[in-house]
């Protein structure tokens, strides 16, 4: 089983950038597809991006294409989410998840989550 720890969130002004990290433990990390999700207050957890085990294939939520970039460093067992041109509506807790396929996924498909990292964007 892969254990996940998210970090890198914070309070930023609209238009700024953040790079979120998801550190994974477990020898089989490199074989998993990795996903980023986010959950805004009062809303359901929603898919943001996914990346293949090799890092060569990515998939993004349609509305976020161009502002979000997912990447992974297999040597560091870490997945990243770069978010540019941040908007107040990006305010949410961001989570990573392991497994599945490189496509939009439902949060209910994943049983294991980290604690998440809070991103707050001020206008």
Overall spatial form = globular
Distance between the termini: 39 Å
Adjacency order of strands in the biggest sheet: 2-10-9-4-5-6
Strand content: over 45%
Q: Tally the helices: what do you get?
A: 0
Low-confidence stretches: none
Structural class designation: mainly beta
Largest sheet: 6 strands, mixed
Helix content: under 10%
Instruction: Report the average pLDDT across residues.
Output: 93
Count of β-strands = 10
What are the secondary-structure elements, in order, as H or E?
A: EEEEEEEEEE
Rg calc: 13 Å
Helix-strand layout with pairing:
Blueprint: E1 3-7, E2 10-13, E3 18-25, E4 34-39, E5 46-51, E6 58-60, E7 68-73, E8 78-83, E9 92-98, E10 117-122
Parallel strand pairs: 2-10
Antiparallel strand pairs: 1-3, 3-8, 4-5, 4-9, 5-6, 7-8, 9-10
């Amino acid at each position: 089983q892969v254990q996940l720890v998210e970090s890198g969130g914070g309070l930023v002004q609209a238009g700024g950038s953040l790079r979120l990290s998801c550190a994974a433990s477990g020898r089989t990390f490199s074989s998993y597809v990795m996903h980023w999700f986010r959950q805004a207050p009062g809303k359901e957890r929603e898919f943001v991006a996914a990346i293949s085990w090799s890092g060569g294939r990515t998939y993004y939520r349609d509305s976020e294409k161009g502002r979000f970039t997912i990447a992974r460093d297999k040597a560091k067992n870490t997945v990243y989410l770069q978010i540019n041109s941040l908007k107040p509506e990006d305010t949410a807790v961001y989570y990573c998840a392991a497994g599945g396929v490189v496509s939009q996924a439902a949060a209910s498909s994943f049983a294991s989550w980290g604690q998440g990292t809070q991103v707050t964007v001020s206008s």
